[in-house]
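Subject: complex prediction, re-run

Hi both,

The earlier run crashed halfway through, so I resubmitted it with identical inputs.
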Amino acid sequence: MANIYLPDIAVIKDIIQETSDTKTFVLRFKNPKVQKNFRFKSGQFVEVSVFGVGEVPIGISSSPTEKKNFEITVRAVGSVTNALHQKKVGDEIGIRGPLGNNFPIDEMKDKKILIIGGGIGLPPLRSLILPMLEKRGKFKKFTILYGARTPDDRVYKNLLKKWNEKRDVEFLETVDVADNGWTGNVGVVITLFEKIEIDPQDTVAYTCGPPIMIEFVIQELLSIGLPDDMIISTLERYMKCGVGKCGHCAIGHKYVCIDGPVFSFKDIKTLPEE
Amino acid sequence: MEVLHSKIGEVIKMDSKNKIILGKKELITALKNVITKMDVVAPIKGSEGETHFQKIESTEEIFWEYTHDIYPPKNFFLKQEEDLFRFSVNGKIDLKEFPVSQRKIVIFGIRSCDVKGLEYSDLFFSNTYKDNYYLEKRKRSILVSMACVKPPFDNCFCMCTNSGPFLESGFDLQIVDLGKKYLINIGTKKGEDFLKAGKVKFVNAGEKEIARVEELKKEADVYFETAAYIAKAIIQVTGDKVKEELWEDFGEACISCGSCTHLCPMCTCFDVYDWLEDGNYGVRTRNWDSCHYAGYTREASGHNPRGQSKERVKRRCYHKLSYQYMKINNNLHGCVGCGRCVIACPVFLDIPTIIKRIRREGLIEKEIDKV
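This time it finished cleanly. Structure:
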């Protein structure tokens, strides 16, 4: 019987310092066969092991169309993520996955796309935005909103610049607290809503960020008139096993790890607790 | 139910051919023969007269007048602490799984409720991802259950949860004590394996003996607690019709000790952690966890969606009592009425009490008329 708890070994190929506390790790499985069979979808996550410290679930942040390597973007918050930040290029870590469900993409063809990311919530959305932009013609208007605590806390600064320069992408960002060099928007991410036009009949919204942000974003989208099933969000829960067994991430009879982490508001509404 | 059990052990259709009669001495002989080939876990007497299920070396150790073990048999399949694999972090990383035993394990005398508890856990551990550690042990286990002619605990309420005192399925063998001899239901091929390894002669049960079992079933019904009315509580919990004040009341009473979850035969939550033996070698281990602990849902950021006791009690009740969970578990209840939480809970917030209070005082006012 296959061991669902046994990780594969991946090698850190590159590390990109995104912010003072966030790094992107470029990973490749040590065994080329494992790398070849590693096919994931936008929104899925992996369980990352730093052996001796523990295991954490992290959303994959690279595009599923990139086959050579895959990436995770990690903020150092707990014991495992801090230990991961100590790792160097060439070091080995454990990976289980891909796990969880994914963002719907093909179902949303010919829709106007609205993506709202907050802080460290942008990385999983990046795995959605990148393949969508590869097939830009399949979607109508494409809007990305990003909010971060401070200008320095913005991840993927080069990529943000590129999105900003793209003519076929409407990209707006904001920070909670500006610094001297910041000339852009200041305020929480929903303050950007009044700067854009949203067509509630024809738009699908994807959001990922801290729970409090998601709550406000969903309320705002509902008040604009987006249907429940066109609001796609991720849910966050403390997670251990990632395979629906340890129980930690259960909400009602759903497990965030196997039934999620992506839920439409239509699904979220049926969850009985909280 | 049969769908699942065909994965754990091939089910035999229940009919009169699979009901046999075995003398009391013959059963002991069978066990003696089985012990030479398989690990046998059976009830033994503790120092204060209590019952424990433990691996035995000789049939002399068996406590035949046993009641109920305060610990459920889940520990034999989902160990309280279980090593998952070893790792070495000396330079390159190397992972090693532990060797898996091939030896069969017999749980002799397991009670009906605990068989149902395992049936529920079997479903849980084999849905979507298959938990190899649990299922591997279950596949090589043989459940020889003992039907409860009288309640082994004062607090048994399996009548309310449809999980005893006699069973129709879930066991490999079910023993019914007829006084001078046993009637045995053969439930699966694994049950036949036990009888083969026991090398004893038996005869098919006659009409009289089968009729006697039916009488015993009826007699047993009288002794068991029936006041828990779980179905009514399920309707209310499922529909979120229990008033907030009652959850608050439960939350204030609960001291989040986790006893009920650890002693519940169907609670399977676990935590996973690593420990290093020295700087270079370590083991990844899992151990029982409890949804009643405040840290159970606390995220690295400090955010805790169930930081309050009342939210955690509600969570556990939802898992045990909601129809949504029954639906995904072949209509099995999330509680098997074993009564252990009644003994364990220091503040008397056990499942029967919760069920009764939800039924009597838990309804939101506008819902009262509908029930």
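The first strand of chain A starts at residue 8 and ends at 19.

- K.
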